[in-house]
Amino acid sequence: MKVLIFPDAKDAIAAAARLVLDQVRLKPDAVLGLATGGTMEAVYDKVADGVRETAVSFAGVSSFNLDEYLGLPPAHPASYHTYMRQRLFSRVGIDLAKTHLPKGDCEDAEAECRRYEAAIAASGGIDLQLLGIGRNGHIGFNEPTSSLSSRTRVKTLTADTREANAQFFDRLEDVPHYALTMGIGTILDARHCVLLAIGASKAEPVAKAIEGPLAATCPASALQLHRHATMLLDREAAASLQLVDYYQRVHPDGAPAQIEPR
Ligand code: F6R
Questions:
Q1: CA of 133 to the centre of ligand 1 (A)
Q2: Cα-flanking dihedrals φ and ψ of residue 203, to 5°?
Q3: How many CA atoms lie within 13 A of 58 on its CB side?
């Protein structure tokens, strides 16, 4: 696992955007795994800037989002379909037919989850999976005690997650109780996992994910099993790490290491 600690949030965000743009430059038909939430907003701004300012093209890119609220139609203002259209898809020239999110308004949720897994497999698998982290250590909507080998399925959201996401709805009561989410096993199948965490509210889950025991109570700790996981942190999100001096010595201020072990 690579732990990169940046002097400030904007540097960590720029690094996440750079990894996405480099992936597309390297492989113009890359399959991206995408996340939503507050942390990703600035990343998508930077990716859109990169597409505008450089020769990188998203025309051949496919994407799979981590999750969607069960019951929300794509046109709902707080759906992740809407988030992705507004924040990324409409700004980078991606072919909408190649973008995928679980359908929140599906009739048969189990069939939809199977369909989603099959579509990811048919694409050849995800090259780079972007991840945020919840205050409770979730990745996607894999809440604490999710099976570490889970596949795409319906999860019940915790009270904490519903509260954290209430900012995107008019009222807390409007936040759905269930979501369709890629499983932890699905996420671990990606060839590169990139987790971005910003701010003091993420310090505790980040420390558990990186240095704590591998445990379903902190779903992000499953990334310890991954062969190519990169953690991008600002100083506040890194504040509870015990080996912070070590990470800083290997990658001073998030810079590439002289020798690049994973
Ligand atoms: C959303 C998702 C979630 C968020 C996490 C952090 O697609 O995958 O796991 O990444 O809840 O959200 P923010 O960035 O709003 O703190």
A1: 6
A2: -60, -45
A3: 24
Whether 39 is in the pocket of ligand 1, judged by its Cβ within 6 Å, is: yes
Angstrom distance (rounded) from CA 120 to CA 228: 19
- Measure 261 CA to ligand 1 centroid, in angstroms: 28
pLDDT tens digits, one per residue of 81-109: 999 999 999 999 999 999 999 999 999 99
Is this prediction's pTM over 0.70? yes
Per 3-state DSSP, the chain is made up of helix, strand and coil in percentages (nearest 5) of 40, 15, 40
> Rounded distance, CA 45 to CA 41, Å?
6
Query: What is the edge-to-edge ordering of all strands in the sheet holding 67-69?
Result: 67-69, 178-181, 153-156
Q: What percentage of the chain reaches a pLDDT higher than 70? A: 98
| pLDDT, greater one: 259 or 221 | 221
50 Cα: distance to centroid of ligand 1 (angstroms): 23
Give residue 55's pLDDT band: very low, low, confident or very high (50, 70, 90). Answer: confident
**Per-residue pLDDT averaged across 73-88, rounded?**
98
Q: Which residues contact 240 (CB under 8 A, 6 or more apart)?
A: 203, 204, 206, 207
- Atom 14 (ligand 1): residue with closest C-alpha? 39
Cα gap 181→95, rounded to integer Å: 23
Query: DSSP string spanning 196-224?
Result: EE-SGGGHHHHHHHHHS---TTSGGGGGG
